[in-house]
Each structure stands twice: as structure tokens, then as C-alpha cells.
């Protein structure tokens, strides 16, 4: 499946879930609301820390071309949806891996907790 097809499928799934929640009279939950920030940090330490600075107090990543998680969290336009798309998209300088949706929600919650820190 191409990256474009994946993004379209992801957007469609998001819209369907938003419509379903709206029909039920509820606001859709974001990844940050569904996830657990502590589990997101644990996952980041295990999977992401070889390249990224993942702790709130870290500003310099082990890989100089990898942004810190605090930098990612505070990037303009970084929303839960943007993060979900980013986590499921191929990046030229990153290894291609698939983040389990529950772990993506946890990472989203952790990154949300980093907003405006550091």
C-alpha cells in the first residue's frame, strides 16, 4: 500500500469514527485522550531513544538529524491527528516501522504532555 493510499485510508477511518461519535452525541476522543502518557514514555524509551531525545529535559538527540520529542510536540500544527499520520507514514531518514495503534495513542498522550515544556 502506498503512503498516499495509507493516508487516505487513515483520514477516512478518522472521519468515520468522528461521525460515529457525533451521531452518538459524543465528541471523538483524540489519541492523546485515549492513550497513557506514562506508557508512551516507556515505549519511546524502548523504541525511539536510540535516535531521539525522548525525555522532557533532553534537547539534543543521539542522532543529530532526529528532532527531540519536545521539539516534535511543540511543532506548529502537531495535533493528535497529525501525529497519527506521522507515525504511520514513511520518513526518508527514519526506519520504516508500524506503530501499533494503542502505542500510537500512548505516544500521542506523551507528546501532548510535552507541549510547552522544555
Using the coordinates above, name the CATH class: Mainly Alpha
Low-confidence stretches: 9-24, 26-32
Described by the principal axes of the CA atoms, the overall outline is globular
- Beta strand %: under 5%
Number of domains: 1
**Assigned CATH architecture:** Orthogonal Bundle
Account of the protein in words:
This protein is mainly alpha-helical and 118 residues long. The termini are far apart. Mean pLDDT is 75; it is low at 9-24 and 26-32. It has helices spanning 3-23, 31-34, 37-48, 69-73, 80-87, 101-114. The chain has one domain (31-114): Cytochrome Bc1 Complex, Chain D, domain 2. It is 54% helix and 0% strand. Helix 5 packs across helix 6 (101-114).
Task: Write a brief structural summary.
The chain is mainly alpha-helical and 118 residues long.
Give keywords.
single chain, 118 residues, mainly alpha, Cytochrome Bc1 Complex, Chain D, domain 2
Secondary-structure map:
Layout: H1 3-23, H2 31-34, H3 37-48, H4 69-73, H5 80-87, H6 101-114
Helix pairs in contact: 3-6, 5-6
